[in-house]
Amino acid sequence: xxxxGNEYIGTVFVLPETRSFELRATVHGEPHLIxxxxxxxxxxxxxxxxxxxxxxxxxxxxxxxxxxxxxxxxERHRAPRKVYCLSRLFDFDxxxxxxxxxxxxx
Length: 106
Hints:
Order of helices and strands: EEEHHEEE
Structural class: mainly beta
Helix content: under 10%
Strand order of the largest sheet: 1-2-3-5-4
């Protein structure tokens, strides 16, 4: 198993109930669609009562810079596969601070 993080800029859609996401980005001039799960720490920020709450409906209104962890899984007698996890949102205004602050995944 091999794991690494990549930063993308694109439109991100989040379904907090299922902790899943879809990212539409352009990589090297080619459109890419990446989908997977949302990290537990980031998913907590989508909860209604969270102190640094992020409204998932606001994410898709403009392109965002995000970090996606990619895990390459190699199993015997199976084709390699990649699993994606949305771990961080950059440049997202938090209403409490009024300045851009990253959403960190621990």
